Amino acid sequence: MLRIQTYRSKKRRFCVIQSSGSQTTVFNPILSPSNGKPSDSKKKSNEAALILIRHGESMWNEKNLFTGCVDVPLTKKGVDEAIEAGKRISNIPVDMIYTSSLIRAQMTAMLAMTEHRRKKVPIILHDESERARAWSQIFSEETKKQCIPVVTAWQLNERMYGELQGLNKQETAERYGKEQVHEWRRSYDVPPPNGESLEMCAQRAVAYFRENIEPQLLLGKNVMIAAHGNSLRSIIMYLDKLTSQEVISLELSTGIPMLYIFQEGGFIRRGSPVAPTEASVYAYTKGLAQYRQRLDDMLQS
Ligand SMILES: O=C(O)[C@H](O)COP(=O)(O)O
């Protein structure tokens, strides 16, 4: 029998990201313009881009198995979806990346960034021990400016699917009935056997978002989050102020990035940048259009 872990919301240490006391800074995400290259974030900004992306197809998505917290890699199709997603967001500034601790989300983030026109290098921050932090330091300020810190957080993991993990979704529906399985998969507050309901998943994912990611957006940092169907559903429920009824019909496809603009403390949903609707995604905010123009100029010169 699987048991639900007790989750404690712990403030993530920012010491590897921002200077604090005597702690050595590994990354300084407050980037300054250099070499005529586009600055990806502004020091004083009340506007920032937020990209949410569900991982590409995993090997258990392909087999139609409940996955939850089981750590399964992407399929070839999932790899292609992540690369395609990267193309869609290749003109949107990214200063920081948050992923779950699961490989399918991390693969997706990394693969997507290989397509970004700014060509910064995403670097996973290791804070599992003092030594891991110290040994992964970068000693060139210039190189640091060309890196994007990637923070991994278990709180962004997929909902724990309890005793359904590893079971076939179709067979489970035949055994327990379609309605019961739909309730386990989509309702807000009904947990699957010994697993997490969406509400329980939100308690750690949304808390993490509010305590760790929102402060970065407030600083004007452009953030990408690569996570999972249900951890992202809970975050979208918070961003879009959905009710527990409305969230039932919220479905997320694999590998489709969604763009939000954080402005004056609120979130504006802008859809997924893709031709031919891409222009409208840029149209509403001067900042993004200018960033894109600077990328064009940089890549032409
Ligand atoms: O964990 C899983 O099985 C999937 O990633 C999400 O599954 P769901 O669509 O059943 O919530």
UniProtKB/TrEMBL annotation:
> Which residues does the Swiss-Prot or TrEMBL record annotate as the active site?
H55 (tele-phosphohistidine intermediate), E158 (proton donor/acceptor)
Recorded superkingdom: Eukaryota
Q: Which UniProt keywords apply?
A: Glycolysis, Isomerase
GO MF assignments = phosphoglycerate mutase activity
Locate the site labelled Transition state stabilizer: H228
Report the family membership.
Answer: Belongs to the phosphoglycerate mutase family. BPG-dependent PGAM subfamily.
Q: What broad taxonomic lineage does this protein's source fall under?
A: Eukaryota, Viridiplantae, Streptophyta, Embryophyta, Tracheophyta
Q: What class of enzyme is it?
A: isomerase
Q: Which organism is it from?
A: Dorcoceras hygrometricum
The UniProt entry, under SMART domains, shows: PGAM
This entry's Enzyme Commission designation comes to: 5.4.2.11
Q: What is this protein called?
A: phosphoglycerate mutase (2,3-diphosphoglycerate-dependent)
Chain ranges passing through the membrane = none
Question: One biological-process term from Gene Ontology?
Answer: glycolytic process
Positions bound to substrate: 54-61, 67-68, 104, 158-161, 169, 185-186, 229-230
Record's NCBIfam families?
PRK01112.1 (NF002217)
Q: Name one Pfam family in it.
A: His_Phos_1
